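Data deposition worksheet. Section B asks for the primary sequence of the deposited chain exactly as it was used as input, without tags or linkers unless they were present during the calculation. Section C holds the resulting structure in C-alpha coordinate form. Section D is free text for depositor observations; keep each observation to a single sentence. Incomplete worksheets are returned to the depositor.
Section A, Depositor: J.P.
Section B:
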Amino acid sequence: MLTRRQILAAGGGSLATLAAPSLLRAQQVEVIEMRGTPRGERIWFNPIGLAIVPGTTLRFVNRDPVNSHTATAYHPEIFDRTTRIPDGAAPWDSGFLLPDESFEVTLEVPGVHDYYCLPHEMAGMVGRIVVGRPSNAGWQGAAQDTGNLPETALQAFPTVGAILDKGRIDPEET
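Section C:
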Protein backbone atom coordinates (compact mmCIF):
# COMPACT_ATOMS: atom_id res chain seq x y z
CA MET A 1 0.00 0.00 0.00
CA LEU A 2 1.30 3.44 -0.92
CA THR A 3 1.91 6.01 1.76
CA ARG A 4 0.62 9.55 1.50
CA ARG A 5 4.20 10.78 0.92
CA GLN A 6 4.70 8.35 -2.02
CA ILE A 7 1.41 9.45 -3.60
CA LEU A 8 2.33 13.13 -3.27
CA ALA A 9 5.81 12.51 -4.65
CA ALA A 10 4.40 10.62 -7.64
CA GLY A 11 1.84 13.38 -8.27
CA GLY A 12 4.53 16.07 -8.10
CA GLY A 13 6.70 14.15 -10.56
CA SER A 14 3.76 13.82 -12.94
CA LEU A 15 3.06 17.53 -12.68
CA ALA A 16 6.71 18.34 -13.40
CA THR A 17 6.60 16.06 -16.44
CA LEU A 18 3.48 17.81 -17.75
CA ALA A 19 5.03 21.25 -17.19
CA ALA A 20 8.36 20.41 -18.88
CA PRO A 21 7.23 21.05 -22.50
CA SER A 22 5.93 24.52 -21.60
CA LEU A 23 9.18 25.25 -19.76
CA LEU A 24 11.17 24.28 -22.83
CA ARG A 25 9.05 26.56 -25.01
CA ALA A 26 9.46 29.39 -22.52
CA GLN A 27 13.25 29.07 -22.75
CA GLN A 28 13.31 29.48 -26.54
CA VAL A 29 13.38 33.29 -26.52
CA GLU A 30 16.29 35.13 -28.11
CA VAL A 31 16.78 38.84 -27.51
CA ILE A 32 17.98 41.08 -30.32
CA GLU A 33 18.86 44.58 -29.21
CA MET A 34 18.50 47.72 -31.31
CA ARG A 35 21.47 49.91 -30.44
CA GLY A 36 22.94 53.26 -31.31
CA THR A 37 25.66 55.66 -30.26
CA PRO A 38 24.60 58.59 -28.04
CA ARG A 39 24.70 61.10 -30.92
CA GLY A 40 23.16 58.65 -33.41
CA GLU A 41 26.09 58.45 -35.83
CA ARG A 42 26.03 54.63 -35.74
CA ILE A 43 23.10 52.23 -35.29
CA TRP A 44 22.88 48.40 -35.34
CA PHE A 45 21.10 45.19 -34.32
CA ASN A 46 22.92 43.01 -31.79
CA PRO A 47 23.32 40.26 -32.77
CA ILE A 48 23.25 40.97 -36.50
CA GLY A 49 23.20 37.23 -37.31
CA LEU A 50 21.61 34.44 -35.29
CA ALA A 51 20.96 30.71 -35.76
CA ILE A 52 17.83 29.38 -34.05
CA VAL A 53 15.62 26.30 -34.03
CA PRO A 54 12.13 26.51 -35.55
CA GLY A 55 9.61 27.82 -33.04
CA THR A 56 12.01 30.21 -31.33
CA THR A 57 10.59 33.57 -30.31
CA LEU A 58 12.66 36.66 -31.07
CA ARG A 59 12.28 39.64 -28.78
CA PHE A 60 13.50 42.87 -30.36
CA VAL A 61 14.28 45.48 -27.68
CA ASN A 62 15.14 49.09 -28.46
CA ARG A 63 18.16 49.89 -26.26
CA ASP A 64 19.02 53.02 -28.22
CA PRO A 65 18.32 56.03 -25.97
CA VAL A 66 17.91 58.53 -28.82
CA ASN A 67 16.34 56.74 -31.84
CA SER A 68 13.19 54.82 -32.65
CA HIS A 69 13.70 51.64 -34.68
CA THR A 70 11.73 48.92 -36.44
CA ALA A 71 12.33 45.21 -37.03
CA THR A 72 10.77 44.64 -40.45
CA ALA A 73 10.87 41.51 -42.61
CA TYR A 74 11.68 41.95 -46.28
CA HIS A 75 8.39 41.11 -48.00
CA PRO A 76 6.13 42.69 -50.66
CA GLU A 77 3.25 42.91 -48.16
CA ILE A 78 5.33 45.33 -46.09
CA PHE A 79 6.36 48.47 -47.98
CA ASP A 80 6.46 46.47 -51.25
CA ARG A 81 9.95 45.12 -50.60
CA THR A 82 11.71 42.19 -52.30
CA THR A 83 11.02 38.90 -50.48
CA ARG A 84 13.96 37.83 -48.30
CA ILE A 85 12.17 35.33 -46.06
CA PRO A 86 11.30 31.70 -46.90
CA ASP A 87 8.15 30.82 -48.84
CA GLY A 88 5.29 30.26 -46.43
CA ALA A 89 6.80 32.41 -43.67
CA ALA A 90 4.57 35.17 -42.33
CA PRO A 91 6.00 38.66 -42.86
CA TRP A 92 6.36 40.78 -39.71
CA ASP A 93 6.87 44.39 -38.76
CA SER A 94 7.29 45.80 -35.28
CA GLY A 95 6.19 49.30 -36.13
CA PHE A 96 8.28 52.08 -34.59
CA LEU A 97 9.69 51.15 -31.19
CA LEU A 98 10.69 53.94 -28.85
CA PRO A 99 13.56 53.44 -26.36
CA ASP A 100 12.93 50.46 -24.05
CA GLU A 101 9.94 49.20 -26.07
CA SER A 102 9.96 45.67 -27.47
CA PHE A 103 8.32 43.45 -30.07
CA GLU A 104 8.15 39.65 -30.34
CA VAL A 105 7.80 37.33 -33.31
CA THR A 106 8.06 33.54 -33.44
CA LEU A 107 9.77 32.04 -36.49
CA GLU A 108 8.61 28.56 -37.50
CA VAL A 109 9.57 28.20 -41.19
CA PRO A 110 13.12 26.88 -41.77
CA GLY A 111 15.43 29.04 -43.84
CA VAL A 112 17.02 32.47 -43.97
CA HIS A 113 14.97 35.42 -42.69
CA ASP A 114 16.42 38.85 -43.47
CA TYR A 115 15.06 41.98 -41.82
CA TYR A 116 15.84 45.68 -41.53
CA CYS A 117 15.14 48.88 -39.62
CA LEU A 118 12.89 51.04 -41.78
CA PRO A 119 14.46 54.43 -41.01
CA HIS A 120 18.04 53.10 -40.86
CA GLU A 121 18.34 50.51 -43.65
CA MET A 122 20.41 52.96 -45.74
CA ALA A 123 22.92 53.03 -42.86
CA GLY A 124 23.18 49.21 -42.96
CA MET A 125 20.91 48.43 -39.99
CA VAL A 126 19.88 44.95 -41.11
CA GLY A 127 19.93 41.47 -39.60
CA ARG A 128 19.77 37.83 -40.62
CA ILE A 129 18.14 34.93 -38.77
CA VAL A 130 18.87 31.37 -39.86
CA VAL A 131 16.05 29.06 -38.75
CA GLY A 132 17.00 25.39 -38.66
CA ARG A 133 19.72 23.93 -40.86
CA PRO A 134 20.04 23.21 -44.59
CA SER A 135 19.22 19.57 -43.81
CA ASN A 136 15.69 20.53 -42.63
CA ALA A 137 12.90 19.75 -45.10
CA GLY A 138 11.85 22.85 -47.01
CA TRP A 139 14.84 24.90 -45.84
CA GLN A 140 15.49 27.91 -48.09
CA GLY A 141 18.83 29.69 -48.27
CA ALA A 142 19.51 33.39 -48.54
CA ALA A 143 17.59 35.32 -51.19
CA GLN A 144 19.55 35.94 -54.36
CA ASP A 145 17.37 38.81 -55.60
CA THR A 146 18.90 42.04 -54.36
CA GLY A 147 15.93 43.98 -55.71
CA ASN A 148 15.65 47.36 -54.12
CA LEU A 149 18.20 46.94 -51.32
CA PRO A 150 20.85 49.60 -50.75
CA GLU A 151 24.44 48.43 -51.16
CA THR A 152 25.17 49.28 -47.49
CA ALA A 153 22.48 46.82 -46.42
CA LEU A 154 23.70 44.06 -48.75
CA GLN A 155 27.26 44.43 -47.43
CA ALA A 156 26.11 44.33 -43.80
CA PHE A 157 24.45 40.89 -43.88
CA PRO A 158 26.67 38.20 -42.33
CA THR A 159 27.01 35.04 -44.41
CA VAL A 160 24.77 32.08 -43.71
CA GLY A 161 27.89 29.91 -43.27
CA ALA A 162 29.32 32.19 -40.59
CA ILE A 163 26.00 32.21 -38.72
CA LEU A 164 25.72 28.41 -38.85
CA ASP A 165 29.35 28.03 -37.73
CA LYS A 166 29.20 30.48 -34.82
CA GLY A 167 25.49 30.49 -33.94
CA ARG A 168 25.62 34.22 -33.25
CA ILE A 169 27.34 37.10 -35.06
CA ASP A 170 27.80 40.37 -33.19
CA PRO A 171 28.09 43.60 -35.21
CA GLU A 172 31.80 44.06 -34.56
CA GLU A 173 32.45 40.68 -36.22
CA THR A 174 31.09 41.71 -39.63
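Section D:
The two ends are 65 Å apart (CA to CA).
Confidence is low (pLDDT under 50) at residues 13-20, 22-26.
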